[in-house]
Write a structure and sequence with these properties.
The protein is about 25% helix and about 30% strand. With about 300 residues, it is of the alpha/beta class.
Length: about 300
């Protein structure tokens, strides 16, 4: 398992009875997690010092109960020496509780940020004049975009939600990244890739974090199990002949690490030689020393 264990501003404090207790900077949130099926006793004091709780509804969805929480706040992630374009090597994020228990960040993805930022940084050290073009699809609020840009890449950030793209821009500004390091696009990811194929554009690396189910800006339907094979095939067509890496994240139950690895080897491996890996990703739980699983990722790299 790949574990996001470099956080200072975030931690899973404890987990029990379908919920996870998290510290986001100075604030403690309680959110549901369907994987927490264990019934361990809630012993640590933080269970009594919660700033906000997300209550799931039996009819679907749910709502936040705010006890003592600001409308928004900030946290940072230490990307380290790979973040050559970010002051002090830190990525900065604005957080805000919003629909369906989200805060605007998936902290488990930090393990991937550190991984590919290291690859980009090494490539830039070896060839400072090289322009490294990275495409981030389903890019949400820009965690991966910030990490790639901070390491020295030129990033194309694509998401179907105008609001998420705006949020990502704010995170880039907070981080202190040069405005020229990211191209921001509100677009349907599949249609964008199809246009890039026709235009003949190529990328050194591709990152994708597709939802299990979603809709594009014009009502386009995305269902992970039905769409991912064809989509990887399209993305392969815009990879350079000697790409740095390809990353796929999945929170879809039916797409286990072995499935993701098979897909990548079957499609990308036909045209590119390199290493293929896939693992669960997770977050350490402070109270127990165990690891909470949080989906999986597949990686190709040279």
């Amino acid at each position: 398992m790949w574990i996001a264990d470099k956080w200072k501003d975030y931690e899973v404090l404890d987990t029990s009875k379908g919920e996870k207790l998290e510290r986001w900077g100075d604030y403690i949130l309680l959110r549901p997690d369907p994987q927490v099926i264990w019934q361990t006793e809630r012993k640590i004091p933080s269970w009594k010092n919660i700033n906000a709780i997300y209550h799931r509804s039996s009819k679907g969805g749910g709502e936040w109960e705010f006890i003592d929480l600001p409308k928004e706040w900030e946290i940072s992630y230490p990307l380290g020496e790979a973040a050559s374009l970010a002051p002090e090597g830190n990525l900065h994020f604005r957080l805000q509780p919003f629909s369906f228990k989200h805060t605007g960040l998936f902290p488990e993805q930090a393990v991937n940020w550190s991984w590919f930022a290291g690859i980009i940084h090494k490539a830039k050290v070896n060839d400072p004049a090289r322009e490294i073009k990275v495409l981030n699809l389903f890019a949400y609020t820009g965690g991966a975009t910030l990490a790639a840009a901070a390491a020295g890449a030129q990033v194309t950030h694509v998401d179907a939600s105008k609001g998420m793209v705006t949020w990502a821009k704010e995170n880039a500004k907070l981080t202190g990244l040069p405005e020229t390091s990211v191209r921001w696009l509100t677009d349907d990811c599949k249609k964008f890739v199809e246009r890039e194929i026709r235009r003949g554009n190529k990328y050194d690396a591709i990152i994708m974090d597709p939802p299990s189910y979603g809709r594009g800006p014009k009502g386009e339907i995305w269902k992970m199990e039905d769409s991912i094979y064809e989509f990887i095939g399209l993305c392969e067509k815009i990879l350079n002949d000697d790409p740095l890496f390809f990353l796929i994240n999945s929170y879809t139950t039916g797409l286990q690490p072995g499935v993701i690895k098979y897909l990548m080897e079957d499609i990308i491996g036909t045209h590119h030689k390199g290493n293929f890996e896939a693992e669960e990703i997770g977050l350490p739980v402070t109270s127990t020393g165990l690891v909470l699983p949080c989906g999986c990722s597949g990686r190709f790299y040279r």
